[in-house]
Amino acid sequence: MIFGLTRKQLSLIVLVVQNSTLVLMMRYSRIVQKPGQPMYIASTAVFLAEVLKIIACLCVMYRQQRYWSKFALVVRHEIFGKPAETAKMLIPSSLYALQNNLLYVALSNLEAATFQVTYQMKILSTAIFSVVLLGRSLTRAKWLALVLLMIGVTLVQSQSMSSPPPEDGSVQSPFIGLLAVITSCISSGFAGCYFEKILKTSETSMWVRNIQLGLSGAFFSLVGMLMYDMQPLRQGGMLQGYDWLTWVVIGNQALGGLLVAIVVKYADVILKSFATSISLILSSAISFYFFDFKLSIQFVIGACTVILATYNYSLPDKIALSATTATTTTTKPH
Questions:
Q1: Which of 97, 177, 283, 332 could make an S-S bridge to 110, C-beta 3.0–4.6 Å?
Q2: Distance, CA of 29 to CA of 288 (rounded, Å)
Q3: Tens-place pLDDT, residues 76-128
């Protein structure tokens, strides 16, 4: 028990808070600026998040080894002494770097609630790549859940495309936001399955792999930053437009994923799906009250469909199959 909560209850809270706050804070940081304050450069935030992630993993490794000599030996042997292993991380790290940059593009053009719902398409891309790369097979119930997922996302996005421009005068393009989310979901699905395949075919620890991933990810982020944002970097510097919220977003993006990875071992897949569902509802409510987000029947139906699909996809195969059968039985006309 921690603070009177069980580990599963605490895991649920952590997952909900991380899933919701990252999207909401990132969205807010991209649309609200103080008078005269320039917009921070998204690529610099992605790069700094990778650096912070590397530092965090090194701290965990040092704590595990307890002594500096052992820690230095592990770093020298596992990270710098195995360039071929680090090279394996080039593909997923480049995709994660692309994904993280696209998240800023998407949240600059989509409402937080719309993004949260649409981003669940990563379940579909992950499922497809798990079949192709990991040789898994999906039951009929899971394929049905994926179809429901696409229907729900389509409903939500059709509302986004038909929504009027925001009243605050900011320039947004739902189409660009949608393309950014779709590309991000595809890269996330492929990178996640590729990374899982590497983890399962080697005995290297997760923290070492995350450092290898972070090093190559920081390299690709740095290259992208210098290639596409050199002009604004020369004019205003790397930290232009930064404030406390920007640093919180960077910290959340860097440490949130690691925190979730630790917490997930205490949470089962059903609890994770509950966390996703609660995050979607929470993001929609906060967007409605604080971001002037217009809720419609179309969005509510689409969001509920996505929540149902996410929950059904997370169920164990036998339970999911029986749930689908029960639904079919109750809706069958007599």
A1: 177
A2: 17
A3: 888 888 788 778 888 888 888 888 888 888 888 888 778 878 888 888 888 88
- Per the DSSP assignment, residues forming a β-bridge with 5 are 2
Give the model's pLDDT for residue 192: 82
Question: Amino acid letter at 12?
Answer: L
Angle, alpha carbons 204-205-207 (nearest 5°)? 130
Cα distance between residue 156 and residue 297, in whole Å: 10
Q: What is the 3-state secondary structure (H, E, C) of the chain?
A: CECCECHHHHHHHHHHHHHHHHHHHHHHHHHCCCCCCCCCCHHHHHHHHHHHHHHHHHHHHHHHHCCHHHHHHHHHHHHHCCHHHHHCCHHHHHHHHHHHHHHHHHHHHCCHHHHHHHHHHHHHHHHHHHHHHHCCCCCHHHHHHHHHHHHHHHHHHHHHHHCCCCCCCCCCCHHHHHHHHHHHHHHHHHHHHHHHHHHHCCCCCHHHHHHHHHHHHHHHHHHHHHHHCHHHHHHHCCCCCCCHHHHHHHHHHHHHHHHHHHHHCCCCHHHHHHHHHHHHHHHHHHHHHHCCCCCCHHHHHHHHHHHHHHHHHHCCHHHHHHHHHHHHHHHCCC
Q: Is 172 left (phi over 0), alpha (psi -120 to 50) or beta?
A: beta
Q: Would you state the pLDDT for residue 17?
A: 80
Residues of the chain whose pLDDT is less than 70?
A: 1-9, 159-171, 257, 260-274, 292, 317-334
Is 198:88 a contact under the CB 8 Å cutoff? yes
Tell me the pTM: 0.76
Of 50, 48, 189, 30, whose CA–CA distance to 104 is shortest?
A: 30
Please answer whether residues 259 and 14 qualify as being in contact, where contact means their C-beta atoms are separated by less than 8 angstroms: yes
Amino acid code (one letter) for 152: G
Tell me the backbone φ, ψ of residue 109, rounded to 5 degrees: -125, -10
